[in-house]
């Protein structure tokens, strides 16, 4: 019987995993550990599926090869945790799940756009301190707002359609403008988008060209009343520069679902240490004009099901000698 090891498995994934194993008559072994901490479970394993925010350590690749494993699948869109060169050197086909549910992240970003337009970070902070004054809280209705989307791909394009349905003006910046979004998105330069948008929403992959995409010079272009939503990847934004911009009033607010250094913080309980080892994230938590969420934009019923099913479909294709739909070359 085919045996697959899935690591970094959460309780909410177990029903989808069990259903897949039953339907396809295979054995799936699950572990909450990272792949580098679960190498002792590789005996008799035919395929491996991971999900982690930290790097896969270099010793994993030859170990997988030694056990006769031919692939390494991540059930996430991002695959920067995997060293593709080392994987290929060890004969491993690498696959990901590029589109588990664009709607899940787009809906989350839309919610955060509404929250920034309605000044809810400041409202929540004031009310928590028994301050119920209205000063500075006049909001913009969505149909009167201009929203800039950086990265108009699967997720950004879905968000654009939602915003267009609400009669918002939608600006887009992408190296590959989409013809199917004509009449929905006004494509422009990054600089023009930053200058005009009431809220900027980021939806780019993490790669060498997107790392540090927004820094100090970019924040100075934005309106002092503007907000930023990041539901893509943390390193896309220079955190120190963002904090300075938020403190200096260069931008009004930010809603961040992902930040630099999140791997040691998100999905963990830090009530005891109060983030003493993550000072930048602690500073963001304490700012009254920041909404911080722990990388949960994707986290819906449909997305979790799709992440499991699509990842395992690719593993089964490779094990059966067929091309995987989502192999990364």
TrEMBL record:
Keyword Phosphoprotein listed: no
Protein family according to the UniProt entry: Belongs to the D-isomer specific 2-hydroxyacid dehydrogenase family.
Keyword NAD tagged: yes
Coiled coil stretches, renumbered: none
Keyword terms, alphabetized: NAD, Oxidoreductase
A Pfam entry, by short name: 2-Hacid_dh
Domain D-isomer specific 2-hydroxyacid dehydrogenase NAD-binding intervals: 111-297
Domain D-isomer specific 2-hydroxyacid dehydrogenase catalytic: 6-328
Protein name in UniProt: D-2-hydroxyacid dehydrogenase
Record-linked Gene3D superfamilies: NAD(P)-binding Rossmann-like Domain
């Amino acid at each position: 019987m085919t045996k697959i090891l899935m690591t970094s498995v959460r309780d909410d994934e177990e029903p989808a995993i069990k259903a897949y194993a039953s339907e396809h008559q295979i054995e799936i072994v699950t572990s909450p550990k990272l792949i580098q901490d679960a190498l002792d479970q590789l005996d008799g394993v035919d395929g491996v599926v991971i999900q982690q925010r930290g790097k896969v350590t270099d010793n994993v690749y030859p170990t997988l090869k030694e056990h006769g494993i031919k692939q390494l699948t991540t059930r996430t869109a991002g695959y920067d945790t995997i060293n593709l060169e080392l994987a290929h050197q060890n004969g491993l086909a690498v696959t990901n799940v590029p589109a588990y549910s664009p709607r899940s992240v787009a809906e989350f970003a839309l919610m955060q756009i509404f929250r920034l337009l309605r000044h809810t970070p400041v409202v929540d902070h004031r009310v928590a301190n028994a301050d119920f004054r209205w000063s500075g809280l006049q909001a913009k209705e969505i149909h009167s707002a201009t929203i800039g989307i950086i990265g108009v791909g699967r997720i950004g394009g879905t968000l654009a359609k939602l915003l267009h349905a609400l009669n918002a003006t939608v600006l887009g910046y992408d190296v590959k403008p989409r013809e199917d979004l004509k009449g929905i998105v006004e494509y422009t330069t990054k600089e023009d988008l930053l200058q005009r948008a009431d809220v900027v929403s980021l939806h780019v992959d993490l790669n060498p060209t997107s790392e540090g995409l927004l820094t100090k010079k970019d924040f100075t272009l934005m309106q002092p009343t503007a907000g930023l939503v990041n539901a893509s990847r943390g390193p896309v934004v220079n955190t120190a520069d963002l904090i300075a911009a938020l403190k200096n009033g260069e931008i009004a607010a930010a809603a961040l679902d992902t930040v630099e250094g999140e791997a040691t913080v998100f999905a963990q309980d830090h009530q005891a240490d109060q983030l003493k080892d993550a000072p930048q994230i602690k500073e963001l938590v304490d700012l009254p004009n920041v909404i911080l969420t722990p990388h949960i934009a994707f986290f819906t019923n449909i997305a979790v099901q799709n992440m499991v099913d699509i990842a395992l479909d690719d593993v089964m294709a490779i094990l059966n000698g067929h091309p995987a739909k989502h192999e990364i070359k």
